Amino acid sequence: LVIAVTGKKVQSFQIDAVVRPVPSVGVAVHSIARGTVVREDDVKVQHVRPTSDADKLYDRVVAVVGQETTRTIVAGQFVDRDSVRQPLYVRKGDAVTVYARSAGLRVRTTARAVDDGSLGELIKVESMLNRQGFFVRVIGPQEVEIYARAPDTGANHRIDQAARQSRQLAR
Q1: Which candidate, 143, 133, 108, 139, places its Cα nearest to that of 121?
Q2: Which end of the chain is more exposed for a tag (fewer CB within 10 A), N or C?
Q3: pTM strictly above 0.85
């Protein structure tokens, strides 16, 4: 650092400093009601003083757009990870279509959602027939799927053995 008065050097000295970039965070432009899907014009990026909670805040608008608010966010409030989530495709109590898939087979039935769920989440549903519960993955609005695996009967192993034997005989 150099101190100069009317262009003449008066004093100079060295200062050690740590320089950090000013963090950017997503801020609500106006109040956003609970359950609203966030649009691009609902939030803006603003530079703020560093805080210890910076890792819980979004620093890009695109990270928030398309998310659903879990509570009302007032104008000027930071958008943190607890105030938004992926939109719910299934709500507790909804009737959902359940797809079961296995090799070459697809079965469809209906069940009742025991949990809320967003795209890709694992939730519990119960059968409408006997209320037996099972876990499924959310694949769309009121749609879930369960993967069924065929039991291993040993047939695949026998087919593989036969193929290996026929190759050996052909040599």
Answers
A1: 139
A2: C
A3: no
Residue matched to tokens 């009737």? 95
Q: Distance between CA 110 and CA 131 in Å, rounded?
A: 11
Q: What's the CA gap between 100 and 148, in Å, rounded?
A: 6
Q: Is 84 exposed, middle or buried (0-12, 13-18, 19+ CB in 10 A)?
A: buried
Place of tokens 């795209």: 119
57-74: b (≥16 Cβ within 10 Å) or e: bbeebebbbebebeeebe
Q: Please check whether residue 111 is in contact with residue 98, taking contact to mean a CB–CB distance below 8 angstroms.
A: yes
Q: Is the pLDDT of residue 163 over 70?
A: no
CB-based burial, 134-166: b 16+ in 10 Å, e otherwise: eebebbeeebbbbeeeeeeeeeeeeeeeeeeee
Per-position DSSP letters for 151-166, written without gaps between them:
---SHHHHHHHHHHHH
Identify each DSSP E strand in the chain by its residue range. Answer: 2-5, 8-12, 24-28, 43-47, 68-69, 84-85, 88-90, 95-102, 105-113, 117-118, 122-127, 133-140, 143-147
Nearest to 94 by CA among 142, 157, 129: 142
